Amino acid sequence: MPTATAVFNGKTIAKADKWETVEGNVYFPPSSLDKSVLSVTDTHTACPWKGVASYYTIKVDDKEVKDAAWFYPETKEKAMNIKDHVAFCEHPYPKKSAG
Predict the structure, then answer these.
(1) By CB neighbour count within 10 A (0-12 exposed, 13-18 middle, 19+ buried), where does 7 fall?
(2) Averaged over 55-81, what is the pLDDT?
(3) Predicted pLDDT at 36
(4) What is the spatial distance between Cα 12 and Cα 39, in angstroms, rounded to a whole number?
(5) Is the separation of the CB atoms in 47 and 75 below 8 Å?
(6) pLDDT band at 92, cuts 50/70/90?
């Protein structure tokens, strides 16, 4: 069965056998996350069709990257499938793999 995994600083921070892919980004369901390494930031951005995104800082051991993950706590109708799901920035941030 295919899985999607996000690894940061050698630690698996998300792993799922069901996820959503939107605009090339893997969105992990909330239940697949290691929330102990995530902390919400004050950063927000707006997407015209998804809604307003909120961001997480990821911290594993001595490595921390601000705004390295994002999620939509409230989505517009067309993006309901990713509500509360989390996507991660690309290199050098968490690596995702499906398969």
Answers:
(1) middle
(2) 96
(3) 97
(4) 16
(5) no
(6) very low
State the amino acid at position 89 in one-letter form: C
Distance CA 87, CA 27 (A): 5
Question: 88, 71 in Cβ contact below 8 A?
Answer: no
Q: Decide: 19 and 76 in contact? Cβ < 8 Å.
A: no
Residues 6+ apart with CB under 8 A from 92: none
Instruction: Please name which of 83, 17, 19, 24 lies closest in space to residue 50, comparing C-alpha atoms.
Output: 83
Per-position b or e across 35-51, b if 16+ CB within 10 A of its CB: eebbeeeeeeeeeeebb
0.85 surpassed by pTM:
yes
Q: How far apart, in Å, do the first and last CA atoms of the chain sit? A: 7
